[in-house]
Amino acid sequence: VHSGSGRLRETVLDMNERPPERYRWSQICLHWLIVACVMLQYATSGAIGRTHHVSPFGLPPDPWDLLLHTIHNRLGLLILAILAIRVALRLRYGKPRWSFPVPRWKQRLAASVHAAFYVILASQVVTGAIASYVWWPISIVHRWLFIALLCAIALHLAGVVASLLLSWRETIWRITGIDVLRKAGSERQQPGPAE
Length: 195
Hints:
By secondary structure, the chain is an all-alpha fold. The protein has 6 helices and no strands. Helix 2 (about 25-55) runs antiparallel to helix 3 (about 65-95), helix 3 runs antiparallel to helix 4 (about 105-135) and helix 4 (about 105-135) crosses helix 5 (about 140-175). Mean pLDDT is about 85; it is low at about 1-15 and about 185-195.
């Protein structure tokens, strides 16, 4: 299939054919679990600064901020554990192939963004743990990694949008396991009432 037309690629996916490859359910669930955890990390991150900035003045931290601080730290460790499992699953099962040829440069770009994502996320967890439990000054690195993670997320989302434009059905199938047209296609193929 020529690389120019997304609509042409969609026609390659006949409703009666076996669906294209997708990630395993374990990989899909862990991906979305990390997404939820990262969103919670950003939601609780403000409590970290508030908790640490009152200490030099001899003021007790707010109990709610302490709770958010604890949640933030524990979620970070959970993210690291999930990330390790995801890497193990990726090494074990690889990634699904697309149903059409993907240029090598796009494959390398996607692989680089994913690798950077993993490294940044793991580094952010490690620096956050060091900042909380060992040496607070490393928190500056943790904050810079926050910005790097936002950039990685933006690149990842740009890749998702590009994939959706190329083949929206296959992209949704790969990352959610939901075949959005299969049910509609099977309903269209049902014979009508006898005349």
